[in-house]
């Protein structure tokens, strides 16, 4: 009897995937992100003439969870697995016979990825992972080739996401004993960053003392199947303060404590994310121990939800300046300046007129004696102003008699 064994794909340095970047970043949350593009090439170095049935590329994203509950004698296993995304590119179709001559071959590819994909995560209860595999399928009794690589997907929030960058505070009156206000300057933080926590406690009951204040940063991981879910939590960092003293002037306990977000490698920190089977959240928890007049201890507990991300919202350098700042670089006439001073929109100064255009372009210091150089378009109908392209052609004409518009660089004050 003839035994037929299936051919297995093997890795070879002659057939490989070359990526532009194996770490892709989604900008914005899942609702506002435009997605990203995975770019790269499949390389095949043929040492001699080679017969090939097909060459294809597969991109896939998978999420899975698995955990056990119960005692060893009666354990129950919960599992779930989902395909998040799956795409395939065919470079050489299997329907045709292909004979590749000796030489190097390269197939470029671009795979668009939607902005609502969950980020890569590896946890003991579950994971979200993305893989790229290239296959070179050859005729029978010939060695097939395969190469694979992992793709890491992260998410960076935009600076325009004001809901994450504004101050977060909680305030209430607890048991008619104390009025509290606890706040942090922002809702989002990244690894190794400092979280300043401000406490403002007003005792309402007589002879009330603060015995201690404990603040802890907790991480919650929730995994779910179609019938069951499991949530685990752990403390990433905490602080305890036993020295809250009453301010005799204000009659309040006020203090700002500092809590540090641990590094990702030091404490196996996971970032906030929400997937189909896995969700990760972070919360600041507070416990205020109060010593009552009769000596017994009461505990006030509160919490502030927060977000831990790979980086803080993107730098404000990418944001257009507000109107109040932008207008300072715009050249305006004396009448406009006088009107703005009268309306209180700008502060008056010793200068009676704006700086001259020549003093700005020459880089000299701006003095109060500078005169305004009238331009031809002042007082004219806007329809007679030349186009910007036309103005550039006339830029070599002196400003006093020029019909051209000034360039942006010449009128900007730094």
From TrEMBL:
Alphabetized Pfam families for the sequence: Arrestin_C, Arrestin_N
* SUPFAM superfamilies with a match to the protein in the record: E set domains
Superkingdom field: Eukaryota
Q: Offer an example of a GO molecular function term for this protein.
A: protein-macromolecule adaptor activity
Biological process annotations from GO: ubiquitin-dependent endocytosis
Residue ranges constituting the Arrestin C-terminal-like domain according to the UniProt record:
174-313
> Can you supply one Gene Ontology CC term for this chain's record?
cytosol
Q: Which InterPro entries does the record match to this protein?
A: Arrestin-like_C, Arrestin-like_N, Arrestin_C-like, Arrestin_domain-protein, Ig_E-set
**SMART domains per the UniProt record, alphabetical:** Arrestin_C
Name this polypeptide is given: Arrestin C-terminal-like domain-containing protein
Species, as recorded: Thamnidium elegans
